[in-house]
Write a structure and sequence with these properties.
By secondary structure, the chain is mainly alpha-helical. Helices cover 71% and strands 11% of the residues.
Length: 76
């Protein structure tokens, strides 16, 4: 029987009913982060906006890395 698990990131915590739910979330979050990065970088109007976007993406990437590492330790 799969156990529930909790993944803690910098700004929030995600609870899952089982490992499969966590795996699906990791896949969705990874894809979503890449799409957000691609769209925001392709539509930046100024160097300043792009700098802010890159900083935001750095935080998103850090959260994503934390999520993947924690999820893999539970799922693996």
């Amino acid at each position: 029987m799969s156990k529930p698990l909790k993944i803690e990131m910098q700004n929030y915590t995600v609870n899952f009913k089982d490992q499969e739910a966590a795996r699906r979330f990791v896949m969705w979050y990874s894809h979503h982060a890449k799409v957000v990065a691609d769209l925001t970088l392709s539509h930046g109007d100024s160097e300043e906006e792009n700098s802010e976007t890159l900083l935001g993406l750095a935080f998103l990437q850090r959260d994503l890395n934390t999520l993947i590492n924690q999820a893999c330790s539970f799922i693996g």
